[in-house]
Amino acid sequence: RSGRPDGMELTELIREARSGSKPAADRLFTLVYDDLHRLAARQLQPFGGMATTSLVHETYLKLARPAALDLNDRQHFFAVAARAMRQIAINHVRERMAGKRGGGAAVVTLGAADSMPADVEGGDLLALDAALDRLADADARLAQLVELRFFGGMSLEEAGAAIGMSPSTLKRDWRKARAFLHGAIGDRLP
To answer: How far is C-alpha 107 from the chain's CA centre?
Structure first.
């Protein structure tokens, strides 16, 4: 074993933390810190200005309250963490752009389905966020799948397990989500 906590251990810690156990919450975040740091680094790779550690710590502050830990298991935890990171990163970009009158925004590209988070090379995070909001209006499950893949850094299989999708539905929905985003964001996507 690699020293990483298993899903059962995290699930138990989540339950204890949700019940108000501060030691369980502290242990939970100690165990997932490296994974959160990896997710934050992936999200911030194309965007300057916000340190990875800052994003992890802001995410921790958002999730550290017992009420925020209304979670089922490890995958649900990382899905919620991905959403929190998305919100924090979007707010950071909006604040930065407000001060620069639109300067500094980069174009987000969605790479191949198997390596999308690693292939991001810059771009408009705000355009992706707006497109995800439109996708959520049309089909919330598709938007959640993209969020888990792009912001959560999950593989297709991990994202499917997190939202309870069969492999065939998962692949079909991933194609639909990508097609929607290609249409919404246009030529900026490969």
So the answer is: 18
Least confident of 80-84, 143-147, 183-187: 183-187
Tokens of 99: 């001060």
With vertex at residue 184, the alpha carbon angle to CA 179 and CA 188, rounded to the nearest 5 degrees, is 90
For 51-78, the pLDDT digits (tens) are 778 888 888 888 777 666 677 777 778 8
Q: Which of 150, 142, 183, 187 is nearest to 46 (CA)?
A: 150
On the CB side of 154, CA atoms within 13 Å amount to 26
**Which residues have C-beta within 8 Å of that of residue 174, sequence separation ≥ 6?**
113, 145, 149, 156
In angstroms, the CA 150 to CA 185 distance is 15
Q: Which residues contact 118 (CB under 8 A, 6 or more apart)?
A: 42, 111
CB-CB contact of 173 with 158 (8 Å) = no
E strand or H helix at 12 = helix 7-18
pLDDT in tens, 75-114: 778 888 888 888 887 887 777 776 654 444 454 444 433 3
The Cβ of residue 182 has, within 10 Å, a number of other Cβ atoms equal to: 15
Token duo for residue 159? 């994202």
